Amino acid sequence: MKRRPLIFAVVAVLLSAAAFKVRSDVSKIQRSKPGGVGFAMSHKPGVGQRAVLLQRWTTTDKGLPMTTTRVVLPANDTLQAAYKNKSGSPPEHFHLYQSSKFTTIRGKAGYVLDGVESVLEPGNSVTLPHLHPHTFWNAVPDEETEVQEEIVTHVGNSTDFAGALETLFGLSRDFGGLDNVNPLQLLLTFQVATC
């Protein structure tokens, strides 16, 4: 029975060392400045979504933290898509603390919210509430679609969701795609985004 505390101590030290290593690696990744150079994320270099951080650390009329980004969904990017014939689609997912308001700027953005599929025409918006499963994609096969996304944090203390997105896009760039990133580093990035 005396071995159990020793094993827990060794595991705790190893996890702490791994977390320190990942945090130091993440701090070296270039981050874009609001309104500055954009960032891109994909599983392979040269393809995938591109985004520009427009505004960070603003607040809604209710005082909730909000970040605004522009996201360009690629045309004909079925290799990177989680779903067949849905270019640029991430796997269906939900956010613990953040809701997103998508507004189509150009092209058409398809999305699934709570199992219902729809398409946004230019100028139209949809709010994807936190804790509701969703995904999105470029619904125009031969041209890019651009959307503006307003990310609002509702509960908890996760106010740097945009920083987590920047980190993912930076990891994708620096490692030649997300497939080449240490899975522990990805998990810790997501964990930081939800604290």
Automatic annotation (TrEMBL):
SUPFAM superfamilies (alphabetical): RmlC-like cupins
Signal peptide from the UniProt entry: 1-24
Keywords: Signal
Descriptive protein name: Cupin 2 conserved barrel domain-containing protein
